[in-house]
Amino acid sequence: GNSVTQMEGPVTLSEEAFLTINCTYTATGYPSLFWYVQYPGEGLQLLLKATKADDKGSNKGFEATYRKETTSFHLEKGSVQVSDSAVYFCALSRDNNNDMRFGAGTRLTVKP
Amino acid sequence: DVKVTQSSRYLVKRTGEKVFLECVQDMDHENMFWYRQDPGLGLRLIYFSYDVKMKEKGDIPEGYSVSREKKERFSLILESASTNQTSMYLCASSLLTGANVLTFGAGSRLTVL
After folding, report:
1. Does pLDDT of B24 surpass 60?
2. Strands (E), chain B
3. Is B4 part of the contact surface with chain A (CB cutoff 8 Å)?
4. What residues contact B76, with CB distance under 8 A and at least 6 apart?
5. Which residues of B touch A98 (CB under 8 A)?
6. Tens digits of per-residue pLDDT, B44-63?
7. B58 touches chain A (CB under 8 A)
8. First and final C-alpha spacing in chain B
9. Rg for chain B, CA atoms, rounded
10. pLDDT in tens, A25-66
């Protein structure tokens, strides 16, 4: 079945450090891929998405590239801030299917 | 902005009680979802609905039921709450077509004693 595997946390970084959170997927067909972020005390919100191979999603300095050959969608940011502290979820959604599959989430803490 | 509103942020119930979690969205989305969020397990789909009075089981429907009598409202029902249903419950909605971007509510944290 369709599934997403993302790196386990927690991840702790100093401000201005480089961030990578790995995400790989298993799916039939051509899924769309997403990163959602959950700030403390809030629901999830979409961070970025990519709908086809080689697409790059970007938002708020975060980027992820849809790599079909490695079935990956790793999240990166060049310089993290304290305000980026949150839980990050990788997710996929297949064509013609209305349910979303989420990874387990990776908690990021950025220290000043 | 699309808003998904969950009526209760925190609930404490006793084993065996019937529990209703309400969710309302204001953007005319066709799809609505209930997820359960547990540490280390991420989000797991309980039920989703793509139209009024329509529902589909997700990965973990046991012990839950849902109701969608109006397009904007999707209710999750625990007929007889148990301690293993203590969790964070997230409601979400999306358009029927497109890249299936979900809009989430803030969540309802349920504790069953």
Report:
1. yes
2. 4-6, 10-13, 19-21, 23-25, 31-38, 42-49, 56-57, 65-70, 73-78, 87-94, 103-104, 108-112
3. yes
4. B20, B21, B23, B34, B46, B47, B64, B65, B66, B89, B91
5. 31, 48, 50, 94, 96, 100
6. 999 999 899 999 998 899 99
7. yes
8. 37
9. 13
10. 998 878 899 999 999 888 899 999 999 999 999 999 999 999
